[in-house]
Amino acid sequence: MRRVALIRFVLLVAAIVVLPFCVRPVVASEICIFAIAAMALNLIFGYTGMLSFGQATFFGLAAYTAGLMMIHWHAPLLAVLAAGTLVGGVAAALIGYVCIQRVGTYFIMLTFGFNQMLYFIAYKWTAVTGGDDGLPGIPRPPFAVGPLSISLDSSLRYYGFVAVSFLLAFYAMKRIVDSPLGVIFRAIRENPGRAAAVGYDVKRYKWLAFTIAGAFTGGAGVLYSMMFGIVPLESISWIISGDIVFMVLIGGIGNLYGPLLGAAAFKWLSEAISVVWERWPLILGVALVLVVLFLRGGLVEAFTRVRDIVAGGGPRPEPDEPVSVPDAAESQARP
Amino acid sequence: MNLSLLAGAILNGLVTGMLYALMGIGLSLILGLLNIPNFAHGVLYALGAYVMVSGTKAFGFVGGALAALVAVAVLGAVIETLGVRRLSRVHPDYTLLLTFGLSLILTESIILVWGPVGITSQPPALLAGSVDLGVTLYPKYRLVVMVVTAVLVLASYLFVTRTRYGAIIRAGIEDKDMAAALGINIRRVFTVTFAAGAGLAALGGALMTPVRGLLPTMGLDILPFAFVVVVLGGLGSLPGAILAGLLVGVVQSLMTAIWPPGADASVFVLMTLGIIARPQGLLGQR
Fold it and tell me: Which residues in chain A are contacts of B111 at CB distance < 8 A?
């Protein structure tokens, strides 16, 4: 089992190295950044069972924080990254505390509501955020530790920095998921009532998961702000929240690699299609509907299915497939 | 702030509040019965407005409004039958994502059909101009819209609480399986409720066109407020949705008069305070 994990990790590193030569380095950076945000959502959605529709709150807050720090104070790179991660975590702790009081649909609507609140503040508070025009003119400070200083001017160099950050984040996330804490998160996802009965303070662990995810998302937001030197208003909008949910979903929830695949597929496709057709969200919507209706396990499930067919076993029946279930209500109601 | 301005702001708030209540009722019923937050509710409202603008040119004002109601209600029925129903036995999160996808598709379709630029529309000539209410001059059309939406809100409420079909809807919210076991075609109730909710949202959008104008993103813009109304009012509580709708509308409108940058954010502050004080919503039982 450990060998499999090692092989997977080596493959991941190889993919990270090859990526900037397959797509433009800027797109490669974007993929890594959103992969961090997607794996953060995966921690609360896939592992703990809470679908947050407001991850852009923490993404955008951290991006604005980083942007303002660099514009006004010329803050160094690592300080900005730390500050953004902290802001993401603190904001998630505050907002999460209210949201986790409710479950299911209410939880989703609350995360979404808070996202919109912050969005409207960013939109209207033009003196600080630039409003609809975004926050431009963000410098990209060099990577500096002690006497060592590496300029990140070119997009390939910046990708290097983003990729290393991503790998560190991935390693941290893997440690969390594999730890006893990760097991508790999964227990809460499977059966909150039983987890509480065993003696775990479910709300506290949900709060913790939400806060951790917020910190990761904040880190991603900081990396995003430096990429184009501008924080667009969109970075705190529910469009980004939806994008992150979508990445996790098409990748496949509840395992570490699904969201990474999802982020890569999403960003690569959006890049490829948006060049050709401006109305690309239409295609995104159609894809989302098709995935939800026919391929709920995402890319990982698609891969598994294809592998099973190739191995000769034929496709496995989906346990939650509703189509073949006889419709008791319908047949009873017909006179 | 002088009295005339205050009265105007409160009246504006009531107009918007009635619209929120109308959308909140549909959302709340769909949420209670089908257990999904309908992310497509906003775009159905937008679609109603756009159909209205095209419909008015062909059939006049009332005809346009009816066209919006019927067209979007039918679309709602189709969405429920072909999409939502297929996911009835899967985790509700997937249904949410389905409606989110539909919301993207319909918003982009609006841009493709009617263009990305905003449109303004005029009230019918009969309702143009203002009336003197003593404290302030107020546009005639807005008063009429306020009354019409209030009647719609009240009619929906009475329909759900006083009629036989309303009792069936409430039974479905209470316990779907039991309702089905008693011989109620619960699937059809789902479809009818979804279509009715969509139709009400569309009618709200249609009536508001001369007041708020049209923008392809108008559905995405109003959706969070409709959600706030449902959360604040309490799940499944129609009086709650009405009360919260009016409250949100008036608070938003007053804040616009006092401090415009905080207008939209204040609504979410209101929601947060409401959730902390009463987690089940203002008039919610659960």
Answer: 279
Q: What is the pLDDT of residues B234-276, one digit of tens each?
A: 877 889 999 999 999 999 999 988 888 788 888 888 888 887 7
**Residue in B28, B27, B19, B62 with CA at minimum distance from that of residue B237:** B28
C-beta separation of B22 from B201 below 8 A? yes
> How far apart (Å, rounded) are the C-alpha atoms in residues A8 and A325?
37
> Taking 50 as the threshold, does the pLDDT of residue A327 lie above it?
no
Q: What residues of chain A, 82 to 121, have a C-beta less than 8 Å from chain B?
A: 98, 101-102, 104-106, 108-110, 112-114, 116-117, 120-121
| Coil/strand/helix, residue B130 | strand
Question: Which range, of A61-70, A99-108, B15-24, B170-179, averages the lowest pLDDT?
Answer: A99-108
A307-328 in b/e burial notation, b at 16+ Cβ within 10 A?
Answer: eeeeeeeeeeebeeeeeeeeee
Q: Is B23 contained in some domain?
A: yes
ipTM above 0.85, yes or no: no
Residue A272's CB: how many other CB atoms inside 10 A? Answer: 12
Q: How far apart are CA A52 and CA B230, in angstroms?
A: 18
Amino acid (one-letter) located at A295? L
A28, A36, A59: which is closest to A268 by C-alpha? A28
> B86 and A323: CB-CB below 8 Å?
yes
Strand partners, A148: A145
The torsion angles phi and psi of B248, rounded to 5 degrees, stand at -60, -45
How many domains does chain B contain in total? Answer: 1
Q: Which CATH class is domain A2-315?
A: mainly alpha
Residue B107 forms part of a structural domain: yes
CA distance A63 to A66: 5
- pLDDT at residue A1 in the model: 57
Residue A59, both tokens = 């993404």
- What is the predicted pLDDT for the residue at B71? 96
Does B266 map to a domain? no
Structure tokens at B75: 């679309």
**Ranges of chain B whose pLDDT falls below 70:** 1, 286
**Which residues of chain A neighbour B31 with C-beta distances below 8 Å?**
105
DSSP string, B180-215: HHTT--HHHHHHHHHHHHHHHHHHHHHHHHHHH-B-
Residue B126 lies in a domain: yes
Domain ranges of chain A: 2-315
Residue contact B180–A288, C-beta within 8 A: no
- Domain with B104, as residue range(s), is 19-130+139-219
Using alpha carbons only, give the angle B254, B258, B260 rounded to the nearest 5 degrees. 90
Closest to A227 in 3D by CA, of A4, A36, A12, A9: A36
Of B191, B146, B161, residue with least CA distance to B21: B146
